[in-house]
Write the structure tokens for this entry.
Amino acid sequence: MAPETTPDVKIAAAPFNNENGADLIIRSSDNVQFYVHKLILSLASSFFRDMFSLPQNEGGDCSGSLSTLEMSETSSTVDSILRLCYPVNDPAAINELVQAVGPLQAAIKYQMDEAINIMTERFKRFIPLYPVAVYGLACSPAVRSEILAGLAARTWMNVRYSWSSSLGTRDWKDTAAGETYANSTYIQNATAGQLYRLLECMRSKKPPLKFLVNENAVGLNQNVSDGNRPAVDITRFSDGDIIIRSSDGLDFRAYKIVLQLASKKFLSSIEDEGCVQSRASEAAVPIYCLFEHSSIISMILEICDPSVSATEMMSIGDADVMHDVLRMAMKYDIPKVATLIKSWWSSFAKEDPLQSYFTAVRYGWEGLARQSARATVYSHIENSYTPAMEHAPARSYHNLMQYHHNCQWEMRNVIHTICPRPALWGTLSSLWKADADEPSNKMQWNDEVTAIVGHITKIHSERTDFNSKEYKSRIKLSITELKNKLSAVKLEF
């Protein structure tokens, strides 16, 4: 007898349309019911094996006498992964990459080892046709396949065998990096770090050991090591009415009212998580247990102290420590701390604009991202890396490289009007420095002009003699022109 259905629910195709012997119903996101067997699912998937070992009738509906498990995948995807688990014919041939994405992601999600192996082999067939797309999908959180990423990257390296400097062409889309990003929207699934490793593979022709992660990265992609942490002062608030206990077992006295004023969420969220030790008596001090290290808690408490000025706090810590402090501030919604750390990063932009840019992208600081991007235009960034790229999307790296490329073209054009002949631009740079007599101009010239010319020096090799009197006025006028042109270059955010 065919199973009954409601008007908005359909029954899957055979063999998943037979309720006789089935002990579970799987319902897809588009309301198609599959009659399945827990034993087969348990053998094929450790996810389902663990699920079925738990007490039943939790988290599922009931359809007649059978429990119903709602799945977020479409009926097409559910049908494919079930056929890979059952002793029946495999799913119909997959002729388009988009058809293979859902089944592979579902197989990984539900820990179906054999289905993962089969779908990975099918994915490999698309690499010669869509290497960048497969690379992006392999990097996505739902797939994360080092095998597919490596094969796709090597294939694209061989397809796009030539790599030229971004200054070799005016249109960004015609550069190797621009063409790579525009090749497939799936590359947007990657992080900036993963896109960097793909482009570095093309530049150097030496694929890294891993594409999904940078094993050599230190600092911003991990917690700060104890040896690099700042000193901790646990006696600062010795008469506080509560205790904040760190993950490494240090106790800090604090004033409850001060923390409540600093953040409405801080103490209440700890209470909601059940991380407050009950008091043995009314006179005992309550203990709030946190997962953060003592060095980070110490800085948070110090910043929340109304008697501490922002100037005092700006001189402490380094980039790694600031990231840990900022993460805690955002977790517990402490505005004062977040604002102070953002100001610290603004001062750090000139020292390390690349790291500052990706940090700003990560936390949504558009103004700081633009400031940092502007600071990168005076140096090479094609082969520059920072661990902060592992926490930023590939789109942000593409946008920065495109902005950098367009700014360098504007620089090149302006300087070309000063001396249209090929030149060793260091000669021109020395004239700029020599003519910067006025103190008010010196920093402007050194920062804005000398840095630009110093970069262009690496591009040209023929020497041309310059007449300083002839070029002096034109050089001065070019500074204003260059600033205006750079200001007009857009950075997507």
